[in-house]
Amino acid sequence: MRVAFNSAHITSWVIGLVVFAIGLSNLVLVHPVPGIVFLLLSLVYPPQVNAVLKARFGFSVPLAVKVILGLVIIWFTLGVSDLGDMID
User: Fold this and answer.
1) Residues 11, 62: contact at Cβ < 8 Å?
2) What is the pLDDT of residues 21-60, one digit of tens each?
3) Which residues of 23-57 are buried (b: 16+ CB within 10 A; e: fewer)?
4) What percent of the chain has pLDDT over 70?
5) Which residues are listed as membrane-spanning (predicted)?
6) Where do the domains of the chain lie?
């Protein structure tokens, strides 16, 4: 089986892994509720999830929405949440 890598897949995986790491950090260091929310949001990023959404429900999450959501999560984490205060 040959897998084709393109910039959209790589971007999705990188942002998904960053959001997953933020969720794991929040889960362990801050509070379980935002950690669980971020972990669940990180499941949106892998391209395989988009394929399942497209097959079952007829829609997928566009890359632009994924990037904006990832930037908002990172901005929120570094600016407002307790995890951002722990990093400083």
Assistant:
1) no
2) 988 988 888 888 888 988 998 888 888 888 888 889 888 8
3) bebbbeebeeebbeebbebbebbeeeebeeeeeee
4) 86
5) 12-45, 57-78
6) 7-87
